[in-house]
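User: Hi! I'm working on a homework problem where we have to compare a predicted structure to a textbook description. Could you give me the structure for the chain below?
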Amino acid sequence: MVSIKTIFSLAMLIGICFVSSAVFAGSAELQESTKDVVERILAGKDLQQALEDIEKSITDNPDSDKRSLSNAYFVKADIYRRLGNTQKAKETFQFIADKYPSSEAGQASANKCSSPGTSKKTSPAGLPGKQSTGKNDDIAAKCRKVMQHAAKPSMIADEVLKCMQSLYNKGNYKDCKSVFDGYFSKFGMAKESVKIVTLMVDCYYASGEYAKGIDLSKQLLARFPKEQNVTHNLVVRGNLLNESGNYPEARKWYLKAIKLDKSNAQAYMSLGLLSQREGKYEEAHSHYEKAKKLAKQQHDNFLLSNAEAYLNDVAPALSHSDDTKTNSESVMSKTAKIVFAVVVLLIIAFRLVSIRKAHLGT
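Assistant: Happy to help. Predicted structure tokens:
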């Protein structure tokens, strides 16, 4: 007769096998979809669609092994980087470094985020269970309650900024916007509001609400054209216009930022991305090189890593451009030789005809 202990052991073994097979199946599926997304990225396919696909794969396979999940998140972070969304890229790399520190992707992410003087740990938007929690709701509710009793912006501005920054860092853009709306409807574009409005513009950019971000940044720059953080706001406004497809206007704001601060590495990075999108690869390469040099001087490892990655991105296009130029010059050279030969033959023919006529005349 089989003992209860044996039955229990068999049941445990079956359970372990079932869970293991489920994890293996999920991991295999996630690995396959990640590979497919990477191939499409390298082929220059639609990055936005690739982002949606990798996010869906992560959501559909939450029980995959750590290696598969960390690799998938790393691809997601790289897509953000390629799209020019530095904030989300950095947040996602930080998440990988915190969540999967022993994995290859975790170690690579840690290197990208190891900028001296920065120890802030954030979570990217869109991660399972990170978007809105009871604690986040409590923070927003508490902040809104305090605002009701504030008569002046100076009484509440610092606390509102701290609250919004906390929500923003957690990727909870919805509550961040809710707190801002409550504050802005009451106090508007007051002097004490500059940092709050600046953060809200960043939030609109991070959440993909480019039109709202463009409108708010316009108000901010019109009201405070010489405030302390103006170069950051100029670059973010350029980024918003860039993502909206208004490349000429975006370029104008990047150049304004550089005119005010020639050491603004992020402005050069953004200008490089814009040039790359316009197919101006030599120009993009020049801007990325400048950003790389400045990032190295400023010990900004994350921006340095981005600059190096973008330089690698444009290298094949530059090589193709050089090959095309060489081929074009070769074709022109051959054409010139043919034309020269034809002209020489015509001269010889004309000379022979002249001699023939002279001979017949005599």
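For your comparison, note the following. DSSP finds 15 helices and no strands in the chain. Confidence is low (pLDDT under 50) at residues 4-23, 115-134. Good luck with the assignment!
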